[in-house]
Amino acid sequence: MRKVQRGFGFVQLLLALVVILVLTMVALKMYQRSAAPAVSGGRGHPARNVLDRVDLRIEGLASEVDALQVTQALRRVQGVAAATTDVSSGVARVTFSPAQTNREQLVAAVERAGFRVAC
User: Fold this and answer.
1) In tens digits, what is the pLDDT along the chain, a chain of 119 residues?
2) Which strands sit side by side in the sheet containing 52-59, from one edge to the other?
3) Candidate CATH numbers 3.30.70.100, 3.30.70.2740, 3.30.450.20, 1.10.10.10; the one for domain 50-117
């Protein structure tokens, strides 16, 4: 009589882990692509557009929540490809399309969020 083997063998377990890892990597890549909006405006590939980067010194950042509010306000501006805010240095780094926005609009977004940009 044949003995019925229950559970996964080592090879099956290893295969399952590899599949889970690959699916996780694919999902992460899709998430990263969805986080930064395309700035092409329908005119060709986004990578071919010229992007500018500006560092804004933000006054009044007291916590990570403040930094998150500034980052979200900047990301809502049309033409912003990426924005990060570091609470320890008080600097917001913004990558944007100069064809769609400018520094003054970024400063206005920060001020609408309740913070001030130092000169």
Assistant:
1) 565 566 557 888 888 889 998 888 888 887 777 655 554 445 555 555 688 999 999 998 999 999 999 999 999 999 999 999 999 999 999 999 999 999 999 999 999 999 999 97
2) 80-86, 91-96, 52-59, 116-117
3) 3.30.70.100
